[in-house]
Specification:
This protein is α/β, with parallel strands linked by helices. The protein folds into 2 domains: 153 residues, Glucose Oxidase, domain 1 (3-Layer(bba) Sandwich); 81 residues, no CATH class. The strands form 3 sheets. Strands 1, 2, 3, 4, 6, 8, 10, 13 and 14 form a 9-stranded mixed β-sheet that branches. α3 runs parallel beside α4. The longest helix has 23 residues.
């Protein structure tokens, strides 16, 4: 692992989108500020407006109320978005023309593929807060200026004003995880490294002596670095993944 990923960000306060969202083409990565879009189910007029209006470098986050009957993003929209500098698109509905989307290398994360074409005349909204109600048991609010990070593991939202805190914690967690992977690769047991109690599992045949509790020993000391330095490193890593992050000072935005 060479950069901060969605799994680490979700562990440290990033708000994950639903598990049903995935990258349209393998290796797609996105890190950009959100430009919310709300489409009327079955219609993508608002998406066309967003492509024309969103600031370059934005991630279009599209609420279609979880509709799976229509392909809201197609080759035409993908090429238009790429040409106008849109960083990527996340939607809780479906897309089509996935081979063409992959060819133009626009990062798109969707709930699936649907061949049926969406309409272009039913209205909607752009630039306003949306609530991704199809993302799980609780709606996920997304506001303009929140940060969206997406990769092969999924999609997370970093609320504006909390970005520096989340990245600081994620970088510390990443440092510890790298050390843990190195220790496991060297032959150490995850039971010992994490202080797990295998006697709770029926059929365990090893020693029942007490193992170190999680948080003790050298694993506990990993990642103790200057928080500001971790923020800078985290922002650099995120920018390397998506290439469209705002300036460093924007990480300290307020609600």
């Amino acid at each position: 692992m060479t950069a901060v990923g969605t799994a680490g960000l979700a562990r440290c306060g990033g708000r994950p989108f639903g598990t049903h969202l995935f990258s349209v083409w393998p290796g797609a990565a996105l890190a950009a500020t959100a430009f919310p879009v709300r489409c009327t189910p079955g219609d993508n007029l608002a998406l066309h407006v967003a492509v024309a209006q969103a600031p370059p470098g934005s991630a279009l986050v599209v609420d279609v109320a979880g509709d799976s009957e229509y392909g809201y993003v197609d080759e035409v929209l993908a090429v238009a978005a790429r040409t106008r500098g849109v960083a990527g698109i996340v939607l809780d509905g479906c897309v089509r023309d996935i081979a063409a989307i992959a060819r133009c290398q626009l990062p798109v994360f969707s709930a699936g593929v649907a061949v049926r074409e969406a309409g272009h005349d039913a209205g909607g909204a752009v630039g306003q807060q949306i609530s991704m109600t199809a993302n799980g048991p609780a709606p996920l609010p997304v506001r303009r200026g929140d940060w969206i990070v997406a990769d092969d593991d999924g999609v997370v939202c970093l609320p504006r004003g909390q970005v520096s805190t989340i990245i600081t914690e994620a970088m510390s967690s990443l440092t510890r995880e790298r050390a843990l992977v190195d220790a496991v690769a060297a032959g150490e047991s995850t039971l010992d490294l994490l202080g797990l109690d295998p006697s709770r599992v029926a059929g365990w045949e090893g020693s029942t002596e007490e193992r170190p509790r999680p948080g003790l020993g050298r694993m506990h000391r990993l990642g103790r670095r200057d928080p500001a330095a971790r923020v800078v490193e985290g922002l650099t890593a995120l920018r390397a993944r998506g290439g469209h992050l705002p300036a460093l000072g924007d990480a300290y935005g307020t609600d």
